[in-house]
Amino acid sequence: MGAKAAGGVGILFSLMLASVSAVRAQDLTEQAPLSPQKTTAFAGDVQAELSVVPGDGICAEAAQLTILRQGQVILEQDLSLDYGDATAIPEGPALCNLSDLKVLDLDGDAEPEVHLGNFSGGAHCCFSSLVYRYQPGSSGAEDRYVFTSHPWGNGAFDLADLDQSSDRQGAPEWISQDDRFAYAFAAYAASFYPIQIWRYDEGSFADVSRDYPKQVYGDAYRLWLRYRELRQELPLPEPSQDITAETEGQVYLSVIRSVLAAYMADKYLLGQEVDGWQRLEQLYPWRDRPAFITSLKHHLRSTGYITGSFTQPVQFFPGGTFEYLSGRLLPGDVHRYELTAREAQQLQLTLQSGEVKVYLLTPGGKSLGLLSPENTSLGRPLPQNGKYVVEVTAAAESRYQIFVEIP
Questions:
Q1: Furthest-apart CA atoms within the chain: distance in Å
Q2: Contact 341, 388 (CB under 8 A)
Q3: CA nearest 333: which of 271, 386, 292, 394?
Q4: Long-range contacts of 44-51 (CB under 8 A, 24+ apart)
Q5: What is the side-by-side order of every strand in the sheet holding 72-79?
Q6: Which of 16, 79, 108, 181 is a good FRET partner for 371, with 20 to 30 A between their CA atoms?
Q7: What φ, ψ does residue 144 adopt, rounded to 5°?
Q8: Residue 393 contacts residue 328 (beta carbons within 8 Å)
Q9: What's the pLDDT tens digit per position in 14-49?
């Protein structure tokens, strides 16, 4: 009996050991870190390595970028990853899914830059480019790579050498779409976009779309053909029919408005806005045409397609208390934004970007303050009822964005 009992205990003990070993093995499997996926790219004396640890979802768990120049490590940086958090890295996009590692000369100075593509996650937004530019040390400072990011919004980009000019030594242009037209006149899935062409130079991106009329003309022609197809495909209402926002006909018309808005943006890039407006009068015969034209002109001004001096009202969203004012100023232009407010209401103005001067004027024309790159914020209670003016000027060509809020 004792031997039998001992044998039973031995079997039981063996089973317990096996169970404990299995649990420990499972724990080790669950806790074992995932192996990083490494990608390498190089050009000339520059080599870049991206090491990414995959996460549970679309976003990475961890990422590291290493850049070597002439075999020496110049940059070794852990990239901050935080889905949907625009402050994940200073002045940069929300990093989530990194890819598209490239080493190539983006500005024609014979020194390769390092490029990373980023997708922030979400149904369709947002894409961005991260560019690292070499900056040699001076006065005892070490060599380093300077970071620049550029958002592409819902779309992406193509790289192509459009002009093959000798001064840039084959550096490419970035062909994309103007994401500011998403949702502007139709739902996202039904939105159309004008072409945008960008150039990277000395650490910054510049919109050079107007320098490439051939590509812009091709895009305008594409939109023109799509408009003609939509007129045949969609069950559009009769021009004489009264249309309300709730009807199916209004939804179909929003598609027509969106393609024509993108077409008009291209016409402005080509300097053919007069012809464009004449065509639009014929292409959009529905009763809401005056409201559509007013809304389109407002959008084209705020996005910088319509340049020159203008005065226009600040249009808050229904029930909203804030708005963004943006545009493109040339020397001598004055952009004036009018907003109606009451005495003692608190007004907040913030210059978010642009080498501009922003004046806040009372209904009588008296200055209440000045914004500039050195003084970017102004907040104060308003002294009287009436129509206030936000006036924007610039000494040189500049794009700008201003945040205005009246709670």
A1: 110
A2: yes
A3: 394
A4: 44/112, 45/69, 45/70, 46/103, 46/111, 46/112, 46/114, 46/134, 47/103, 48/101, 48/103, 48/114, 48/132, 50/98, 50/101, 50/116
A5: 37-43, 46-54, 60-69, 72-79
A6: 181
A7: -155, 170
A8: no
A9: 544 455 454 444 444 455 566 888 999 999 999 999
Q: Which residues of 151-181 are buried (b: 16+ CB within 10 A; e: fewer)?
A: bbbbbbbeeeeeeeeeebeebbbbbbbbbbb
Per-position DSSP letters for 260-303, written without gaps between them: HHHHHHHHHHTT-HHHHHHHHHHH--STTHHHHHHHHHHHHHHT
Q: Which CATH class is domain 310-405?
A: mainly beta
Question: What are the angstrom distances between the C-alpha of 137 and each of 144, 145, 187, 387?
Answer: 7, 10, 49, 53
Q: 397: which residues sit within 8 A by CB, 6+ positions away?
A: 328, 329, 330, 331
**Residues sharing a CB contact under 8 Å with residue 314, sequence separation 6 or more, in sequence order:** 323, 325, 337, 338, 339, 390, 404
- The model's pTM is 0.74
Is there a contact between 390 and 358 (Cβ–Cβ < 8 Å)? yes
In whole angstroms, what is the distance from residue 237 CA to residue 235 CA?
Answer: 7
- For 252, list phi and psi in degrees, rounded to 5: -65, -35
CA distance 278 to 285: 12
Q: Where are the domains of the chain?
A: 37-156, 171-305, 310-405
* Nearest of 170, 160, 186, 205 to residue 299 by alpha carbon: 186
Strand ranges in 86-243 using DSSP code E only, listed in sequence order: 97-104, 113-119, 127-135, 144-153, 158-160, 173-177, 195-201, 204-207
In this structure, what DSSP letter does residue 202 have? T
175, β-bridge pairs: 158, 197
| Neighbour order of strands in the sheet with 310-313 | 310-313, 335-341, 386-393, 357-361, 367-371
Mean pLDDT score across all residues of the chain:
85
- The whole-angstrom separation of Cα 35 and Cα 54 is 8
Q: Is the dihedral of CA 161, 162, 163, 168 positive or negative?
A: negative
Tell me, what's the pLDDT at 83?
Answer: 53
CATH number at 37-156: 2.40.128
